[in-house]
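Table S2 (continued). Query chain:
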Amino acid sequence: MLELFSTILLIAHLLCVNIAAGAPILCVWLEWRGEALARRAAAYLGRMGLVALVAGGLFGLAIGWLKWTPAYRELWTGPLSYKLHWGAAELVFSLVLAGVYWLLVRGKAGNSAGLRIGRGLIALLNSTNLLYHFPALFVVASKLYETGQTAGATIRGAQFRHLAWSGEAPALAIHVILASVAVAGVMLLGLALRWLRHDESPADVAKVATWGSRWALGASLVQLPVGLWTLMALPAGTQSSLMGTHVLGTTLFIAAMLTMFWLLRELTGVALGETTVPAMIRSMTAMLVVVSLMTAMQQAVQPIGTLDQSTGAKIWPAKS
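Corresponding output:
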């Protein structure tokens, strides 16, 4: 039951993080368009990105609390203590940027090119700050924890960059960027559905839905080769688990791939003009299912050691 609860928390955390990092990217594009409709969409994404960043942080704290065994605490107060302190500062920085962007884009100031460029730069800085620091940090933390390297000297500079850009880490970083754009694109479908309930112009609703579905579709299509790259870069044990030696992991992997093609089909329909309520709801549902299955799959095949119930530390098998 605790593992199921942890997985649900992780799904919620990842969705929030994707929105927080991906929404500003779409805001940059919307600012570039310059039209009034794009500004309204950007204001919505700005608000949702800010809310998602706060919610994602809270979900992350809850996950950390559930995992806060002596070994996990040793990792963050030892090797990753330097990055933990800087990570907190970067999170506050992104919160400030997200708040400033939302206040500016929803304010009564004009929509001149200079103002749009300024708002776009703030959104871009927010997104790049999140995507540069946090995926790499948690990939490294996961690698160290899963291999039992929770003690030792503080990791800084070049040593951290080496860990962050070796093995499967680069593929996972690109995967996170694409997932963030895809989820943020689907958020525009949510905006279109909301506008339909408030009797907004059908033309505006269709335009926003088309924008969102095209961004989500493009990012999801690029995910296919990136996913293959990620699979090839994973450790041999994890690959074997996904390819048949772990029944649950393999089942979730197959289900995730099938659902991915369902998602592509639904997004294609909306992108080509099928901006009906059922089509948009199916697209949003498919995205939620894909993220959920991918997260559950990752949790199922996570190569972790045996937990020592008395200390909370992990016992890893001896290396041959």
